[in-house]
C-alpha cells in the first residue's frame, strides 16, 4: 500500500501523510547518501519528507525531490515537505528570512509545513550553535508568541501551507493556544516518540486540542555521537519488540512504526539502507492486535535519547516538565 493513501487531517484543512521519511544525517554519514536515500524512499512510496535548516541537507533534499519531479515519478503537489526554523532565528524579524533561505536551498517555492524547531532561542547569527569562551551555548530571550505571529505571516505569504511546532511541552503549547489574537493554531507538535518514550500524556493533550503528534526518532534515533549517549539501549534490539516482530514475521522497525500508526501518530522513519527504507513503508500492510499494542505500551520507560543537555539552563527548556 502506498503511503500517499494514508493521510491524517490537520486543523487548517490540509492533510499530512502518516508515514514520513526523516533526513537528519549524523556527521559520520556522507551528505551524498541523502540524495540517494530520498530517491529510494520516493520510489518506495514515501510522499512525506521531513528536513530542517539545522540538518544542513536542504540542498540535497531539494535536489532529490526535483529529480523525481523532472523524471515524472511525482508532481510537486504529491510531496509533503516539512522544514524547520532553527533556534538562532526565533526572533520575529528573522523568521521569514530563515524560511526564505531554506526555500532557496531547496529551490522550491513553498514548503507544506514549517515548524519552530526548538523552544529554546539562541543568539542570532551565522553560527548554528553560538558559544561563549567556556564552550556554553549563548542563549537569546524571545517571546515564542512573537515568533508564532511571524510564522503566521509566513503562512499568509504562501511560503508555507501549514505551521506547527517541534519539541514543545504542554505548557508551551498552551501558551501559543492562549495567545490573544491567535490566527492559526499549530497543526502539529513534532517530538521524540517511540516505545521507550511513548508520550501518552502529551499525545492525549494534543488530540484534545486537535493538534497532530508527529514522532521523530521513532526507531530510536540514528545514534549520532554528538547527541546520543553510546551506552543508551538499542530500541530495535529490545527482546519484547523482537518477540512481537517474530510473531508477525516482521522487522522490529516495522513493529515500532506500526505501533505509532495505530495510535494515530504521524511517524518519521529514517534509514539510509535501501532494504530498510523499503521495509519501513510496509508498516501499512499489517495490523497489530490489541494485546500486542498493550505489550508495546508496557515498554515505556520515559527514556529520552535526545536529552539536549546543552539547552538545560534555558528558561524555555522543554524537557523539565513531565510532558
UniProtKB/TrEMBL annotation:
- What Pfam families does the database record attribute to this sequence? Aldo_ket_red
Tell me where on the tree of life, at the top rank, the source sits: Eukaryota
Q: Where is the NADP-dependent oxidoreductase domain?
A: 19-300
- Does the entry feature the keyword Oxidoreductase, yes or no? yes
GO MF terms listed in the record are: oxidoreductase activity
Q: Where is the active site?
A: 55
Q: Where is this site: Lowers pKa of active site Tyr?
A: 84
Keywords from the UniProt entry: NADP, Oxidoreductase
Residues reported in the UniProt entry to bind substrate: 117
- Which protein family is it in? Belongs to the aldo/keto reductase family.
Could you tell me which PANTHER family the record lists for this protein?
A: ALDO/KETO REDUCTASE
Protein name, per record: Prostaglandin-E(2) 9-reductase-like isoform X1
